Amino acid sequence: MGLRRTYIELHIAVVLLAMTAILGDLITLSASVLVWWRTLIASVGIGLFLLITRKLKMEWIRGHKKIYVLGGMIALHWICFFGSVKMANASTALICFATISLFTSFIEPWITKRKRETHEVLFGLLVIPGIVLIAGHAEGKVLFGIILGLVASLLISIVASFEKKWITETDPEHMVLLQMAGAWLAMCAWLSGEYFLGRIDHFIPQGMDIIYLLILGLVCTCVAWVLATRAIRTITAFDSMIVINLEPVYGIVLALIILNDGRELTLSFYLGASIILASVFIHPIWQSRHART
C-alpha cells in the first residue's frame, strides 16, 4: 500500500476516533459498562465481516494468544479515557490524549528495538508545558480526569508499539478481532468485580444510547481501528501517533459545537492546548524538510 493512501486512511481513522469522546459523553452508561458494550459490538461486528467475506482463519484466532493481552490493555485504556471524559469533559480527555507522542517516543524504540530518534523525543517533550498549563489549576474531579487521560495515553502508546512489532504475524482485521475479543473478556472480569461491589446501576442501554453504541462499536471502532492498524504496517508507531494526535483538533471542535464544552474551559486550557497542538503540526513540517535534505 502506498504511503499517500496510508496517510489518507489514517486521517479517516482519526476523524472517526475523534467522535469517540463525543459519543462517550452522550452515552449515559458508566465508563466500564460503556466499554463492555463497545468491545462486544466491535468483536461481533468484525467477526461477522470476516465470516461473511470468508476471510476468518481459526488458526490465527487460536495461535496468537499474546494479542488478547493487548486487548486487555485496550479495555483498561478505554476505561481511563471514558472515565476522563465523564470526570472532566470531552475536550480535556482529548487534549490529554495528545501526550501519546511523548510516551511513544520512549516506548516504541524499546519494544521494537529500533534506534531512538532524538527529534521524536524533543517533539514529544513539547507537550509537557501544555499539560502543566492545563493541569496546573485543576482540582477535584477535573484533576482526576486529567490523570486518567494521561494514563489512557500511556496505555495506548504501549499497545501501538506492540502492534507495530506483531502486525506482520497477522492481518489488520484479525488483529482488531483478537484485540476486541481480549478487551471484551477483560471487561467481563472487570464488571464481575463491580457487580459484587454493587457499583453497577445501569447496564442495559435504552433509547439513543443504543444508536450511539452501535456507531461507537461498528464505525468508530471496527472501521477506525482496522484503518489505523493497517497504517502501522507502513509507518512507524511514532509517526502514526503524531497523525492520531490530530484527534483532539477534530474532537475539541466537535465538543465545542455539540457539547458546548467551551463554558467549562479556562484560558490556561486554551494556552496549553495550543502548545500541544503546535507540536502536532510542527513535527510533520520538520520531518518533510528533513527528508528533502
From TrEMBL:
The chain crosses the membrane at residues 7-29, 35-54, 66-84, 90-107, 119-136, 142-162, 174-198, 210-228, 240-259, 265-286. It holds the Pfam family EamA. The keyword Transmembrane applies. InterPro entries: EamA_dom, EmrE-like. Residues 12-135, 144-282 form the EamA domain. The keyword Membrane applies. One of its GO terms (cellular component) is membrane. Keywords: Membrane, Transmembrane, Transmembrane helix. PANTHER family: ACYL-MALONYL CONDENSING ENZYME-RELATED, MOBA-LIKE NTP TRANSFERASE DOMAIN-CONTAINING PROTEIN. This is EamA family transporter. It comes from Candidatus Opimibacter skivensis. The lineage of its organism: Bacteria, Pseudomonadati, Bacteroidota, Saprospiria, Saprospirales.
